Amino acid sequence: MNVRIAGCGHTRFGRLREGFLDLARAAGREALDDAGVQAVDRVYVSAQAPEAFAGVANAAVAVATELGLAGVAATRVETAPSSGLSAVEAACHAIAAGQAQTALVVGAEKMTTLPTPRASAVLAAMIHPSERRYGLTMPALAALTTRAWMHARGLSREDLAAAPVKAHAHGARNPLAQFRRRVLVEDVLASPLVADPVRVLDCASMADGAAAVVLSARRGETRVAGLGHATDDLSLAGRTDPDALVSFRATRAAAARCARSARKSVRDVDVVEMHDAFAVLEFQNLVDLGLVPRSRVRRAVLSGDTSLGGSLPVNPGGGIKARGHPVGATGVAQVVEIHRQLRGDAGRRQVDGARRGLVHNIGGYGNNVLVSLLEAA
Amino acid sequence: MTVAIGRCASGHAFAPPRKSCGACGKPLRKRRVPASGVVLSWTRVDVPPEGFRPGARVAVVRLDAGPSLLARARRAIDVGGRVAVRETPEGYEI
After folding, report:
1. Which of residues 87-116 of A touch B (CB under 8 A)?
2. Nearest to A358 by CA among A248, A275, A299
3. Is the ipTM of this complex over 0.95?
4. Contact across the interface for B45 and A192, Cβ inside 8 Å
């Protein structure tokens, strides 16, 4: 795929004063300036639920208007929390098909205006109605798979805590991250239960923020070398995969499709941005993406292999857990992080000599997944 | 005791029954199967979404007849425990 990343933008993530359109405009403007362009052929806006969270509909043209791009073809993309990488995918397809030379992708969400029970209900709308009726939240679905990992795969509660501890340590190095304070295993274990056995510090929080990239057919410091996308049953219990509680078939399929489109393995990478919205996913994703065998995944995380300085740094910017998870912005922010890593612009969290990186973005609880391979151009 | 499930010609099964198979699109035939199964996992939702009370236990149960389902648990349960599933107007219960 001959698509390059020519520029990027990223607001702070967290509980912010700015509204949805302010954030989208700031990230989009920064990306355009970074790419050195005034105009693009297409605009893609990623947002999961701006109607419910921010009272914004018709988000694509709203963002285009804010950026002085009225007149340009503009489309909103929504695939739950994988909306960001889906929007990047849509832009790549437009460029690969010759429908555009340049495209701006802006991902944004404004979540903190709603009280948490209301925001949880907005997010729970992405759960299958037959499962939503029991009062499940996204952390509750994560809890069902976390317990399955503990039972069937031998992870202890302490083992799981290593993931948020690492995420916060990385976030402390990212000036744009929501959580920049380190936490200890004891802090994770002492944080309140959200959905037994999942605790507050295992979970990404509600956040506001936006991220943007300019994609180009011609120039850019990094290249989208591969993209894969796969789905699974909307419900968790209705998945026909017998391992559905400990593995996402959609991640495995998206990784295989990404490798096919890149014509190379997705395992040979220097840095990874993966969807760690809950602690268990750090372990599960490593296995599902084929990066670490199941028998070694506990050791890999606990020994620091996936920390900065380790053999396979995962989520150097803090990941979804610590950078923050404004759901529509997340996939774009992941691409921004890898782009910065590959152009050597990641500050105190730089992975030395990174030339190839993997992005993994989950929508729903493991039912709409994208994987992308990026390379230094 | 039995519960209703939907099964397609390829053998994919869903509880509760749906109109068509999510895996292959074929129509699902509704049938009743024994309500017995095993608990694969469970949680207790301490921070529920708007409209629900905290503390509800929810389990994933794999029916002996095949499909898995979610069910509200009225008491403490263990992974691997044998349970019988009841259909109620509010969904499945164990």
Report:
1. 116
2. A275
3. yes
4. no
Residues in contact with A120: Cβ distance below 8 Å, sequence separation at least 6, in sequence order:
A137, A138, B47, B48, B49, B50
Q: Is the dihedral of CA A63, A94, A255, A138 positive or negative?
A: positive
Q: Which two tokens stand for residue B6?
A: 């939907």
- Contact (CB<8Å) B58/A193: no
Q: pTM score > 0.95 for this model?
A: yes
pLDDT in tens, chain A (377 residues): 789 999 999 999 999 999 999 999 999 999 999 999 999 999 999 999 999 999 999 999 999 999 999 999 999 999 999 999 999 999 999 999 999 999 999 999 999 999 999 999 999 999 999 999 999 999 999 999 999 999 998 999 999 999 999 999 999 999 999 999 999 999 999 999 999 999 999 999 999 999 999 999 999 999 999 999 999 999 999 999 999 999 999 999 999 999 999 999 999 999 999 999 999 999 999 999 999 999 999 999 999 999 999 999 999 999 999 999 999 999 999 999 999 999 999 999 999 999 999 999 999 999 999 999 999 99
Query: What letter would DSSP give residue A314?
Result: B
Interface touch B70/A136, C-beta < 8 Å: yes
Please, which residues bridge with residue A314 across strands?
A: A272
- Contacts A118 to B, Cβ<8 Å: 50
Residue B77 contacts A, CB cutoff 8 Å: no
Kindly determine whether residue A140 and residue B45, on different chains, have CB atoms separated by under 8 Å.
Answer: yes
Q: Identify which of A121, A134, A237 has the shortest CB distance to residue B72.
A: A134
